[in-house]
Amino acid sequence: MAGPNPTLKLVVVFESADPIALGIAKSALEDAGIEFAETDEALTGYGFSPIINPVGKIQVAQARENEALEILKDLLGAADAETDGTLSESAPE
Fold it and tell me: What are phi and psi of 72, to 5 degrees?
């Protein structure tokens, strides 16, 4: 097994506070053979708790961003109206 690649650039392709939407997105990427990393961030501010209001983000290698977005768009596009999941389009740097 190869070690970590320090030059690998990850981009966020999906984020949601809904654990079901996150699970669907992760499953779709796994089925497509796309490796991903998941991170959790807590909303901060008045009335938000890191335990009650975590926001999960799914990141993929920049080279597979378009493929991942297409898979997630097809799978979750209709569900976006019912959940708070959002597909992320990376901004140019």
Answer: -70, -35
